[in-house]
Amino acid sequence: MIYLTLIARVADGLPLAATIQDDDQLNRDIFQYQNQAKTLVCRMTPTSPSRCSLIAGPYLFHYLLDLGVCYIILTDSQFSRTKAFAFLEAIQAEFYGKYNQQIHTVSRPYAFLDFDHVIHKTQKIYSDTRSSNLSQLNVALQDVQRIMIQNIDDVLQRGEALSIVLIDIPYSFRFSRFRFVHHV
Fold first, then answer.
1. Engineering a disulfide at 115: which of 2, 17, 51, 171 sits with its beta carbon 3.0 to 4.6 angstroms away?
2. What are the V-SNARE coiled-coil homology domain coordinates in residue numbering (predicted)?
3. Per-residue model confidence as pLDDT tens digits over 116-175
4. Edge-first strand listing for the sheet containing 15-20
5. How close are the terminal C-alpha atoms of the chain, in Å?
6. Which CATH class is domain 2-127?
7. Closest C-alpha to 7, from 80, 82, 106
8. Paired residues of 172 in beta bridges
């Protein structure tokens, strides 16, 4: 589950948009994690990794750093990393597509609060267990397809190796027969 989403400008740490998921278990600590996310953004440099997952107690921060903007989420530890980064990429594409001209000129914190509904809609898609099952099925199908392609490639390579061996056998057999006949 995604508990917190924060979009912030890296140059000055200005929060541009944010959402917090209501959760009774996390409710009292969410502001502490939100402050940690803001601190994390403020400490980023141009040499920071563009993608990273960080352990924060029983939760994980995942962030995507792109074009001077940090997209960061807080999830539970069971939330798939691939799903987390797919979510971040989806949010990044939507946000940049909508606000790319204004990102570096705004001076007011949370200037893009109207982006909140897009974040919530995308969170529902990525938090839905049915989509989780579908994505796991897609990954499994891709693995099977990759294994099948790899196996076919292995067979084709073995076939080439066998044809080389079969071409060499008659020649070596004739040469051995020639040596045997002339040697006796």
1. 17
2. 133-184
3. 999 999 988 887 765 555 666 666 666 555 554 545 555 555 555 555 555 555 555 555
4. 15-20, 2-9, 69-76, 59-66, 51-56
5. 83
6. alpha beta
7. 106
8. none
